[in-house]
Amino acid sequence: MANAAGQQAERTSAWRLRGGARVRLFAYLLVAPVVLLILGLVAYPFLFAIWVSFTDMVIGSVGNFVGFKNFAYLAGTATFWSAIWNTVTIVLVSDVLKLLIGLGLALLVHQHLPGRGLFRSFLMLPWAMPAFVAFLTWRVLYQPIGGGINLILTQTGIYPQVIDWLGQRATAMGAVITASVWRGFPFWFVSILAALQSVPKELYEAAVVDGANSWQRFWNVTLPGIMPVIIVTTLLSSIWTANGFEHVWLLTAGGPSDATMVFPVLAYYGMQTQRIGEAAAVSVYMLPVLAILVIFATSLMMRREE
Fold it and tell me: With a threshold of 0.90, does the pTM exceed it?
């Protein structure tokens, strides 16, 4: 009897082990399509681009391994350093302006104002408009002859001389940043507005009881409550702006004299000249900067959670 009971226990244990293996196998089968999709759409192109950056590949040729030759060549050109400076400038300045505009409008619309639903929809129009159409419209507005901005300035007497906004170094960067901010601030607006609506009203009531004024309520209640959303929005907006192509290409194509040259446009010029290895090297150069940005934002989020 004891032996029979032991054999039964062993069979039960083995069945449980086989059952657990079947459950794990079924789980792996469920996850496998997603893993294969990620490997095919993300990992393979990413690793292939890194490999290409170390070759002298051109259109129609697999290329040869050249080590860091492409990176050294780019580092020795003035255009590359202009692209670094311009990319950082556009990201920093445009993100600060988008934050200020988005936060100000979100605080305004968050109040109980008449027609605020219509106003919210109106503010989302720049984001809803296709980027191609938006920046071509801004290009028409910036035209020195017949452009809307110059017509307003000259007809009203504010500035009687025609300005070539996109054709001179003094104004080209400001013109690109202005168009980029107009296109991107609705994303900040809707993100911050959603965060404002999630801040508990009890905190404001407690602050009022403690005698806090409007500024103190904003600094001690509103800002800490929406800070996680601001961090995530800053991260996403910075990545999108750094990788943005349309706002520079459609307005200035990186000119005049590399005054608005950025990494995506520089990589595109490499593709146009069929130097695939150099174009890939430009993209790989951006990886450390974006990685540092992601790590910094993630560390801030984790620190706040702790």
Answer: no
